[in-house]
Amino acid sequence: MAITGLGFSGTMVLAHLVNSAQPPKRIALIDPSPKPWRGLAYSTHHPAHLLNVRARAMSAYGGDADHFLRWLHAQKEYAGFRADDFVPRRIYGDYLESIARTALEKARARQIEIVHLHASLRTIGGGNPHHQLTLEGGAQLSARALVLATGNRFDEAGEGAATRHPWHISADDWKHGKHGRIVLVGAGLTAMDMAASLLADGYSGEILMLSRHGLNPHAHNASKAGDVDALLAHLMRGGLSARLFALRRAMREGTQDWRSIIDGLRGHTPIIWQSLNAQDQQRFLSRLLSFWNIHRHRMDATQRARILAAPNVRHQRGQVLKASAHHVQLRHSSREQRIDADVVLDCRGPSYRALIPALADASAGELIACHPQGGLISNDAYRVNDPSCAPIYALGALLFGERFETTAVPELRVQAEELAKILAPLS
Q1: pTM of the prediction?
Q2: For residue 40, which phi and psi values (nearest 5 degrees)?
């Protein structure tokens, strides 16, 4: 059995497999990252990059709601965090590493062979009863089952393009422009991360956020998930416009705070998404996704207020036509403008259509199939390939087109546990 990708999803599949009553005898872990177990989201080490969910909701185990809080309080340096705090993401990365270490120790005790291959998966040779996998560098292995946990991916940036992975830039990288201008393409959570770390590092130059709508994520408040049963009936029928009207009316005229409504819909989002036809799904992604994201993916209110009140943070609306390392071509209304900068950071986030090369090749070879809205086509049991071959399973961002709500811990922890139950008998 092989797992490719060792962020949250891959780590938790491994943890559940090791704890299974019928664990596999050998598990190959395929990931080239120098920081396994953390993934893209939690590999940042900047203390200003915070979780966007309170600590009490971030347990890696769905059946143990206080697991993360107990871990925090067991660490002397983290014991001061409370349930309602927004903890730095680097600390959550430490938490995932501790889960991985425990899993590896249990694997040794249960005589489960764990092989960690520090390489990228290059090709998948479909077969039965095994897949033949080729890694970067030419190494090969066979696997009776393959788990794809590759997480969020970015389109490849061309030479001279703006930086696509801004979380991994250290403070020293932008000190040369301390009194100049840094352009952030986008105004969502990634851009707010970058602004937070720039301000925390004492950057006094201009921080310019560019986005089509000029919208930042909303702030969390003390509200809890609300009762959406009546609203759900309206959101499961009709076209996209009618459903949007029903949602807006409930948020505007209902007795519940709009945040409670959005949070109450969270568990129902996949079935609402699947009830839309392909045309309405595409319309939503092209016209409404940015509006949905600022309401659904919120942030710490204190951090948000600090960023937006900073005198050197500025916003400008417009469509970004081109973003290079030191300038951006922007269109607003019918006018185009070139904006020069010391540094341009592309903060528009991952692409749900981007695949690792092995999956792109497998798709071209018809071993797997891409979903029209992004990710892979799967069945309800996470399988993404033909039953005539050895199974290939996917979870997380690769299920975006199928489930839409599939990139945050509350969904990923359920997927990892369910998939591990399917995998356990495949020794």
Answers
A1: 0.94
A2: -65, -40
